[in-house]
């Protein structure tokens, strides 16, 4: 089976999307690219996360040709392929419908640095304009909006995060959802104080040495 480890990771982290309350039903999607094989594993469209098996995960070329799997790939395959092709340091994409991030996206707001954990994206989380799900227009909007950031809100839709591996992209989705909740709650009380770009630059440098490095 091609990309066995990547397909198993899609199953594992797909279930975590549900248990971490980052999406519901079969919503959201994930992909992982194996740069050496030049192949991408992506969640199949409309398949329940707890019923999905590694062999259900679709394997594709970066150009979108299916090379293994008998199911349709995610309806959002366009923006997965676009992101994985546009930035060589990206090997994984996670898309969620997490409640607080989506709430901010439905207001058509960016997510500012109300908390330093927004650094999982950068000094903010930018916003991509609305387009119908699954369209090339949506893929183009996300590619233009995300730039060098590791997360992007999708207007009236949800959140997308990227990373060098699936664990990192998933962690970004979790932390950005936390920051979105903090921002929502702070706005309910008053006007939150936003961290400066200079402080977020310091945070970004500290993130580079955070945790246990090999």
UniProtKB/TrEMBL annotation:
<protein>
    <submittedName>
        <fullName>Fuculose phosphate aldolase</fullName>
        <ecNumber>4.1.2.17</ecNumber>
    </submittedName>
</protein>
<keyword id="KW-0479">Metal-binding</keyword>
<feature type="domain" description="Class II aldolase/adducin N-terminal">
    <location>
        <begin position="8"/>
        <end position="184"/>
    </location>
</feature>
<dbReference type="GO" id="GO:0008738">
    <property type="term" value="F:L-fuculose-phosphate aldolase activity"/>
</dbReference>
<dbReference type="GO" id="GO:0005829">
    <property type="term" value="C:cytosol"/>
</dbReference>
<dbReference type="InterPro" id="IPR001303">
    <property type="entry name" value="Aldolase_II/adducin_N"/>
</dbReference>
<dbReference type="InterPro" id="IPR036409">
    <property type="entry name" value="Aldolase_II/adducin_N_sf"/>
</dbReference>
<dbReference type="InterPro" id="IPR050197">
    <property type="entry name" value="Aldolase_class_II_sugar_metab"/>
</dbReference>
<dbReference type="GO" id="GO:0046872">
    <property type="term" value="F:metal ion binding"/>
</dbReference>
<dbReference type="Pfam" id="PF00596">
    <property type="entry name" value="Aldolase_II"/>
</dbReference>
<keyword id="KW-0456">Lyase</keyword>
<dbReference type="GO" id="GO:0019323">
    <property type="term" value="P:pentose catabolic process"/>
</dbReference>
């Amino acid at each position: 089976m091609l990309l066995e480890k990547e397909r198993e990771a899609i199953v594992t982290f797909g279930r975590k999307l549900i248990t971490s309350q980052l999406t519901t039903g079969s919503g959201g999607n994930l992909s992982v690219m194996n740069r050496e094989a030049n192949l991408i594993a992506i969640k199949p469209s409309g398949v329940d996360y707890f019923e999905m098996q590694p062999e259900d995960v679709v394997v594709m070329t970066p150009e979108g040709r299916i090379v293994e799997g008998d199911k349709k790939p995610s309806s959002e395959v366009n923006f997965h392929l676009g992101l994985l092709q546009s930035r060589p340091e990206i090997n994984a994409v996670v898309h969620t419908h997490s409640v607080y991030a989506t709430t901010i996206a439905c207001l058509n707001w960016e997510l500012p640095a109300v908390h330093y954990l927004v650094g999982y994206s950068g000094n903010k989380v930018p916003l991509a304009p609305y387009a119908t799900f699954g369209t090339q227009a949506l893929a183009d909007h996300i590619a233009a909006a995300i730039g060098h950031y590791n997360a992007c809100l999708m207007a009236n839709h949800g959140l997308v995060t990227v990373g060098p591996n699936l664990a990192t992209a998933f962690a970004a989705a979790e932390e950005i959802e936390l920051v979105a909740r903090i921002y929502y709650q702070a706005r309910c009380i008053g006007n939150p104080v936003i961290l400066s770009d200079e402080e977020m630059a310091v945070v970004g440098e500290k993130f580079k040495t955070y945790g246990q490095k090999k």
